């Protein structure tokens, strides 16, 4: 509890806070992480998300991608951690979210300043003419899906291993690392380059690093100043109560 109070004080007095999120923030929305005991890389070979493998084996790659990301499409909903970050943004206590996730849950929770280091699964892009489609426009009954304009193969518009990071996300991340006085790291192992360089850069620039994770990560003993061990939604609910106590009182005495 003491640590939660400390985190609330740090966040309340911060001029500019950035949330840096990974797969762990979406676990309680029903989306499995990539690593750890229920990690998807324990069951699938990451090569399905390697761009050279995809271009040579689009059908096999798509079979795995569909099972991993599109069979549950639209079923996962934002959890209290996503919602708390969106509320912090509305109340002026969060400058931006830098996420490694492609699940669109920050946006669905209402966050507007979201920068996606690895893109987003809601669009497909033609590898030949680069036309983009919203996922619901395209049937995934036959794989690989093809472009209506040119017949080219469609690829999810998120970053595959071997592809470059979207410029806007990269610039926004380096800028955040330079101007944030608090970095709130939620649910990431810190294993994947170059995303994992951002928190150490923020630390180097003087940011206070607050980390939420049920397990220690690469950051915990390296850059983290305040480690809150636990699940994202449980801890963020407590932090939200500390940041916005008044509304909680109203709720407590609200007569329905
Ligand atoms: N709340 C918070 N954190 C959690 C929870 C939870 N309920 N459950 C698990 N975690 C933590 C795990 O302890 C782990 O540190 O979330 C982290 C998940 O780690 P990864 O699966 O490696 O996810 P991430 O760090 O985001 O991976 C980075 O790797 O495969 C690529 O592109 C993929 O964006 C992904 C990148």
Q: Strand percentage, roughly? A: 15-25%
Q: Biggest sheet, in brief?
A: 6 strands, parallel
The secondary-structure class comes to alpha/beta
Low-confidence stretches: 249-256
The strands making up the biggest β-sheet line up spatially as 3-2-1-7-8-9
Task: Label the CATH architecture of the largest domain.
Answer: 3-Layer(aba) Sandwich
End-to-end gap: 31 Å
How many domains? The number is: 2
Q: Overall mean pLDDT score? A: 94
What can you tell me about this protein's structure?
The structure is a single chain. This protein is α/β, with parallel strands linked by helices and 256 residues long. It folds into 2 domains: 1-31 and 78-118 and 164-256, 3-Layer(aba) Sandwich (Rossmann fold), CATH 3.40.50.1220; 32-75 and 121-158, SIR2/SIRT2 'Small Domain' (2-Layer Sandwich), CATH 3.30.1600.10. It has 9 helices and 9 strands. The protein has helices spanning 2-12, 51-56, 58-70, 80-90, 105-109, 167-179, 198-204, 232-243, 245-253; strands at residues 17-21, 96-99, 114-116, 119-126, 132-134, 154-158, 182-186, 208-213, 226-229. The strands form 2 sheets. It has a 6-stranded parallel β-sheet with strand order 3-2-1-7-8-9, with helices on both faces. The protein has a 3-stranded antiparallel β-sheet with strand order 5-4-6, with helices on one face. The model is unreliable at 249-256 (pLDDT under 50). The structure holds adenosine-5-diphosphoribose (APR).
């Amino acid at each position: 509890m003491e640590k939660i109070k400390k985190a609330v004080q740090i966040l309340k007095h911060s001029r500019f806070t950035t949330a840096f999120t990974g797969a762990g923030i979406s676990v309680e929305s029903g989306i499995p992480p990539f690593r750890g005991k229920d990690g998807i890389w324990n069951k699938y070979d990451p090569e399905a998300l390697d761009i050279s493998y995809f271009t040579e084996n689009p059908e096999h790659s798509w079979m795995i991608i569909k099972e991993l990301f599109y069979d549950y499409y639209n079923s996962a909903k934002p959890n209290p951690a996503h919602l708390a970050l969106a509320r912090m943004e509305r109340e002026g206590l969060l400058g931006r979210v830098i996420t490694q996730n492609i699940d669109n849950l920050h946006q669905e929770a209402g966050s507007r300043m979201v920068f996606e280091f690895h893109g987003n699964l809601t669009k497909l892009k033609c590898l030949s003419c680069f036309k983009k489609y919203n996922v619901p426009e395209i049937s995934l009954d036959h794989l690989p899906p093809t472009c209506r304009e040119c017949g080219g193969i469609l690829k999810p518009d998120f970053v595959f291993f071997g592809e470059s990071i979207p410029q806007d996300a990269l610039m926004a991340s380096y800028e955040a690392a330079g101007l944030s006085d608090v970095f709130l790291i939620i649910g990431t192992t810190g294993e994947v380059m170059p995303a994992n360089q951002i928190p150490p850069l923020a630390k180097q620039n003087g940011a206070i690093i607050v980390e939420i994770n049920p397990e220690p990560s690469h950051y915990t003993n390296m850059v983290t100043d305040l480690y809150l061990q636990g699940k994202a939604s449980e801890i963020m609910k407590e932090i939200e109560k500390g940041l916005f106590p008044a509304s909680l009182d109203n709720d407590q005495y609200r007569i329905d």
